[in-house]
Write a structure and sequence with these properties.
Blueprint: H1 4-10, E1 15-17, H2 49-53, E2 60-69, H3 72-84, E3 94-95, E4 107-115, E5 118-132, E6 136-143, E7 149-159, E8 166-176, H4 179-183, H5 185-209
Antiparallel strand pairs: 1-5, 2-8, 3-4, 4-5, 5-6, 6-7, 7-8
């Protein structure tokens, strides 16, 4: 099978995998290096999400905001650590290698299991990391060639300075970029909504258990 490590190290296209069941097609492995599959002008657009939403007719927009805790700096640091460890993706039906470093230019492989024993491997690249000390920390990854969708996803943990509440946010814009995503688009959109809710729950659990 194609592993997350192969996607990150070899620049191979995303695709299907089965944990221990499918073989990698080595002949196709290096046909195309990872490059963004979104318009150049849209790379990094989630940095100012208001601008991203102006393209709503072109992209589907998703926003999720979840309260993680009310313990100010303590919960903020916990949330930041959880985000950098990719806890928002460790949902059972989605995975990211927790050793993947959060830094600009880092390749990321998001694994999604829509059906039993079927894993979809989706490559992305971190396009920016931003921090306002003791107030907010965020990063975004943008889809690469081979991803089922074209778009960008931003994750943020932020502290409300007035009441010490700490929040987790997911902000995305996307559109289908593969025949499978186009055919199953209603199901894809449903999974995107479910992911936002599940990611928020997992982040909240991580902060509570640290």
């Amino acid at each position: 099978m194609k592993t997350q490590r192969e996607i990150l190290e070899n620049g191979s296209r995303g695709g299907f995998g089965g944990k221990g069941t499918n073989k990698t097609d080595k002949k196709k492995k290096k046909k195309k290096k990872n490059t963004f599959n979104v318009d150049e002008e849209d790379v990094g657009k989630t940095k100012n999400f208001t601008n991203a939403k102006k393209k709503k007719s072109y992209y589907a927009i998703d926003e999720t905001k979840v309260l993680l805790g009310t313990n100010g700096d303590v919960d903020y640091e916990k949330a930041k650590s959880a985000l950098k460890s990719w806890k928002q993706f460790q949902l059972g039906w989605t995975e990211v290698d927790e050793a993947t470093r959060v830094r600009k230019g880092q390749k990321v492989c998001v694994m999604i299991q829509p059906f039993p024993r079927v894993w979809l491997l989706n490559p992305l690249e971190i396009t920016y990391v931003s921090e306002e000390k003791k107030k907010s920390y965020s990063f975004a990854h943008t889809t690469l060639q081979g991803h089922l969708l074209a778009g960008e996803e931003k994750f943020t943990v932020e502290k409300d300075l007035q009441n010490d509440r700490v929040y987790f946010k997911v902000e995305t814009f996307s559109k289908p970029d593969h025949i499978l995503a186009k055919v199953m688009y209603p199901a894809v959109r449903a999974l995107q909504k479910i992911f936002g809710a599940h990611a928020g729950f997992e982040m909240k659990k991580a902060v509570r258990n640290m």
